[in-house]
């Protein structure tokens, strides 16, 4: 085994698991709905999602009973995932799946593998997926899942064992008409293929529509891998047209993973100049423009951007506030804080990540009035939209060309942007509140019409 990988394994094994242990303790101590709500609200990501919901619900003047039914998750699943490691030891990883609502169709949302994953974070992401799917008029409810692990320290065999056992634990709760997972941070097409195979083995026949984001040769869709990033770039470019920005706009992409890298390449094709990119280790900035091909080669070889010779090295916080026309945060939640928001030098904030901007930062941006925000549930909706296309293709066993996929995607995204901007103007609210309100209103109305089962 690689010495660096072995060393990192030992470091991770010795790290405290207080967050996971606290989750279990709280849920076991108080399994009531009130206790669970209090536990969720202790998580800063869920508290942020809940605050956003309340602000939008106030605009919609939702009745209290309908507000409560729409806000809280329908189902939260916590499982133990035992894995025999390459060392021979058996480790238990905590796994989560939250189905926020199933009112409009099966649950839809990614699976995240990261050390920080916990129930509150997953519940927040599931809530945002609810509003995202409703905003895009997709026949889904929001869901999300994850395992608290560090995939960078795990071998391919360990990751396969983890993924298959996690899938087995979720078998009663997932399926093409129940809940359809997809890739997210730390997960890949290969892992989606393992999920499909595990589920299909139990069903006795191939079930490609149980998961999206699969490799094309086992029922995946052309264009799915690039869809989130290309959708971000499409909307950022449309916003630039609306604001009449110069064709060679300067772009900074914080987070150079799947979403950020494809967004950067797509923006470059639109004629923009990529002046900054960042990953978990920090940011690379060059006002003259970065050679994306060479930067990507360096990252593939070194697994980090640190030390890349093509620009000035800085922290991610410093990268976010460098001058540019378009800033794309495409990494994790809560990176645009109030302090960062006050220093931003961008004209467009295109949110490729989920929840990158805190409510306090939103207030500052709204007061400034000089930053055009494309909120996350709209900006990064290309991934779930093309996942929907993949699901439809799988159910019909009839597949589309890549040009058909993107033509359908852009024909959904552009009018949705116009709808959000109109709502914001008519109601005098921010773009974020407008997007959330449109999604929340659709879910709440569907729940009202379906009624309350006795």
CATH class of the largest domain: Alpha Beta
The Cα radius of gyration reads 21 Å
Q: Based on CA inertia axes, which overall geometry fits? A: globular
What is the name of the CATH superfamily of the largest domain?
Answer: Leucine Dehydrogenase, chain A, domain 1
Helical fraction: 40-55%
Q: Architecture of the largest domain, according to CATH?
A: 3-Layer(aba) Sandwich
Number of helices: 18
> Strand tally, please?
12
Adjacency order of strands in the biggest sheet: 9-8-7-6-10-11-12
Compute the average pLDDT. 92
Number of domains: 2
CATH topology of the largest domain: Rossmann fold
Percentage of residues in strands:
15-25%
How is the main sheet built?
A: 7 strands, mixed
Oligomer: single chain
| Unreliable spans | 11-18
Distance between the termini: 58 Å
Order of helices and strands: HHHHHEEEHEHEHHEHEEHEHEHEHEHHHH
Structural class: alpha/beta
Write up what this structure looks like.
By secondary structure, the chain is α/β, with parallel strands linked by helices. It folds into two domains: 3-205, Rossmann fold (3-Layer(aba) Sandwich), CATH 3.40.50; 225-370, Rossmann fold, CATH 3.40.50.720. Helix content is 52%, strand content 15%. The protein is built from 18 helices and twelve strands. Strand 10 (326-329), helix 13 (338-343) and strand 11 (348-350) form a beta-alpha-beta unit. The chain is globular and about 55 Å long. Mean pLDDT is 92; it is low at 11-18.
